[in-house]
Structures are given as C-alpha cells and as structure tokens.
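Hello,

Our lab assistant flagged a job as stuck in the queue for most of the afternoon. It eventually completed. Since we weren't sure the result was trustworthy after the delay, we are filing this so someone can double-check. Below is the sequence as submitted and the structure that was eventually returned. Let us know if re-running is recommended.
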Amino acid sequence: MTISRKTVLVVGGGHAGLEAAFAAARVGAQVRMVTGSIRTVGQTPCNPSVGGVAKGHLVFEIDALGGFMGRAADATCIHGRVLNRSKGPAVQSTRVQVDKAKYGAYARAALTSHPGIEVIEGLVSSVVLDGDRVCGVALVDGSQVSADAVVITTGTFLGGLLHTGATKTPGGRAGEAPANGLSDNLRAMGFRLSRLKTGTPARLDARTINIDVTEPQPSEDPVPRFTLPDDIEPPPPLIEQVHCHLTWTNAGTNAIIKEHLHESPMYSGQIEGRGPRYCPSIEDKVVRFADRDRHQVFLEPEGLDTHSVYPNGISTSLPAEVQAKFIVTIPGLENAEILRPGYAVEYDAVDARALDHRFSSKAHQGLYFAGQVNGTSGYEEAGIQGLLAGANAALELLERDALLVGRDEGYAGVLVDDLVTQGCDEPYRMFTSRAEYRIMLREDNADARLSGLALSAGLISQARFDRVQTRRANIDALCTELSKKRSIDDAPAWLRGRAAAQHTYAGYLDRMRAEVARLRGDAATDLPLAADLDYATLEGLSNEAKQRLAEVRPTSTAQASRIPGMTPAALMCLWAHARRAQKQAGRATAVRRHSGA
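-- returned structure --
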C-alpha cells in the first residue's frame, strides 16, 4: 500500500491513540490509525470518569494544547465535582462522570469525520523498519501499511491476559484479542518489556441496588467544566445530570475476601505483573490495610441509557462466585445482581527509559510510544502522552522544533520526565505530590502556561492564543484590584476564582520562578553528545552510576539528578565533566572562528 510522504500512523484507538491522531493532524501531517475495531474506539473500559486528583490538571493541559479529552468529557458529562475543595487552589482537581456510550460515540464521530485522518481496521503484528528508520507496520493478515512515523498506543493489549479466579483468557480487555505478535516483535527490536497489571470491578444492575441506605453524591452546581466559558468554541451544552452514591464495605466483607485470598490470581502466583500501588484491588486493601474495618465504595452510573453501575473501590480478580458472595455484604447491595464479573488484566509495557522526552525511541527513528504501553495507568495520563507523541511525530516529519514541556511548565512535563528518566516497575499514576512546582501548575492557569507552546507547535490557532492573552490580561487586572483590597464581584465567578488563586500564590510564585531560573542555570547544564557519551570511561563514577546513566542517557545534569540512586558525588562528577566539555567545545569554536578569519 503506497501513500504520500509525511504520514503519521497511529496504532490503537484508545485515549492515547485519539489524542495522537488529532494532534498529528493539527500539526499538519497526514494521519492513519490502525485499530482492531472502529466500534470500540474511544471506549472508557474501566471507570466512567475523566479527571480526578492531578488527573484533572492533565485534562486541562490537554485542552490547553488543543486536545480532545476535555471537550468530549464536557459533551457527555452526567456528574461533576471538584475534589480537594477544602485545600488550596493548586491541588483542587476536577472530576466528571461521563456517559460511557455517549463518550465513545462522540469520539468515533470526531475521528471518522476528520478530513485528515483515515481509520483502518486491523491488528498490527510488527513494526517494519528500513535500517534503523520506521517505514510502517505489518498486519496479522499479511498486509502492510506504510508510514513515515509510527506512534504505538496499544494500551493493555500487548500480551494481554484477563484473569478471573483461576480462569485465564487472552485479551486486552473483555471480548477483544491481545497483540501478542507485536509484543514479540518489540522484544526482537531490543525493547525491554515488563509485566504490569490493572483491574476492574464487577458491573452491577442499578435496578437491584437499594440506594435508600447509601449516601447520595450529587453534582456540584454549577457543574465544573474542562472547556472555558469564553473560549472561541464554548463548552458543549450539559446533558442530564445524575447522582452517584457512597457506601462502605465492612468486617463481613473483609472476612469473605480473606477466606478466599488463595483463589485470587494475585496471591496464588498466577499473575506475575505488578499492580498499581495507589489504586489497589479490594484484595490488596484487605491485606495492606488490615486494621481497617471498611473501605469506600462509590456507586457510579455508567450512562443515562443503561442500568450498569460501576462500584468504584472494589476492583477484583477473585472468582465470580466469590465476588457475588462478598458484594451482597455491602449496605445497599444486599440484592445486587452482577452484570459482568470483575477481572484483572496483565499486559506488557515498554521500559520508557528507551525513549527520549519526545516519546521517541532512541534506537529507531520515527517510532513513538504513548499511553499504558509506557507503563502508566489512567485515561488522562494516556491522553497527554498521545498528544505529545503524535505532535512530536508530525513535527519531526515537518522538520520543526519538538514540543517539549518542562517540569515547571506542566504536569505533562513531570509525567514525561519521570517516565523517561526513572521508568516504572508498577503502573504510573499522576499525583500533585509528584510536581515540585505544583503551586505554579494549577488547573486554572493551564491555558496561560501552555498556549505559547501550543501555538508554536501548530496545535491551536492564533485566534485562540489571542483569546488566552486577553483572558490573562483580565485576570491580571482583577489581581491588581485585589491587591488594592477592592471588590471584583462584578466579574464572572470563574474569572474571580482564577484571579483569587493567582493573588493567593503571588509571593510564592516569585520565589519559585527564581528557583526555576537557578536550576536552569548550572544545575541544568547540558550534557554534550548525550547519545554517544561513553559513561564507562568517565573517572570518578561508580559502576552502578555508570550503568544507570547509560540506561537513561540524560540530556542534562538536572535530568540526571532525578535518576533513582544517583548520589551527590556522582552528580558533581557528571557536572564537572559537562562543564569541562563545554569549555573544550568553546575553545574549539574560538579556534575555528580565528582560522576562518
């Protein structure tokens, strides 16, 4: 199959794949997506929510970079709240429930109607290379799809295996085949793969739940949105809002789970992969928090036109009959019927230390990775990776500067740097605590932080950028009024909130900006020829430090400082080498200039 030049091919149609495809198209590349089924594009296969602690920050950043997820969530939102209301604005995070069917339909409509994107149904078996440059992919049916760059966003499908009790079923999620051939191919290409695990709870029939004994959780009024009210494309209209409900497990629940722990594939040794420490299964909770008699269970409707309820908090891989046994011990669920048992998903993930800050393979030109394949968990982490990888793939083909977000510029930058510097031995989840500059990285200023980068990359229009600048000027004016202790009550509530947050953190921000400037000085010294540097020859480094540096190949001493296990002595040695190399390069340049004269 022949196609024109400058084509980005996206493998996978989940949240990372969607953002990658849309971003590459916005930048200016032709885009093709290969997915197992158009019908399942844009699914929310686990919980029916978008956002949450720190995750909401990522969605706002996706939106600031012209992305899709926030607008799709706003269009299909059936419940919304801002978490951490009692804390400062920096850690307050928006979380909305979406109608799962409507979200998927919205995504498929946007994808299939996009004039710059072609969708191909198929299962990828391998990456096709021309030397060390990617030139397309091969499908299991023997055909090939050519491309100038490939973005792999396979989620949990690489070597995917589903577990419910002792039952094992190959699949990336319920009812869909895994990508075993591609997993083997990536190993053959030299990528180190690790085995990770995630999971999902049983789905319950709302008609069999007694909500009268649970605690109602209504939407906030007004319902929070990810799209800003004054944007050039205003937020989609709200659809019907519903209540969620809160209940709790109890000592009886815990006793049943403990009695059957030996039947859980996590504890029987059947599952080899590491699960998410910060989103544990109910089995993990009962073991790790043995002193607790109860755990929260949020009953979350999965849509307006379904009776399916997602009991958030009791993810499990226990046998189906054990799930039924412990669920009926929970208040409100005494007569609950299971629509589908919960299960665990075990899958392969790429060691992201093989990638640079563009999410591009260090060893294979034009090959990018994004989403759970990089070891992350969550729709939001996947979405921002897809956007950055897709944009950078297109920018490389168009010979333009890469889109790089610093740790002081966005949670996106924190996530990228953490992954490519440290890798992960468990599914990576974003938290506000991961961001050392979090008071600068609030939800309310994502547009101000990232619109310049978005405009330079071609991800947003000049008109949208100008709107952001006008918004910033209005907020600055309101802050001036606040500093003079004047009322700003005449301004819209959302603008008042942004101005109040900016005013609250003003002093801290000045000090933090000074710290960033300092760290971007000597501490951020570039490492010359990082791709070719032979760390084994550097004197003063331990063998362990040499090995860790060779694995990550940091591009600056600042990045090197974040490699696990790097000692102050090793960093000083590296810094001294970098400064010495800089001086040598400077002298060489001066000699060349003198000779030329």
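-- support follow-up --
The delay was a queue issue, not a problem with the job. The result is valid. Residues 81 and 535 are 50 Å apart (CA to CA). The chain has a mean pLDDT of 90.
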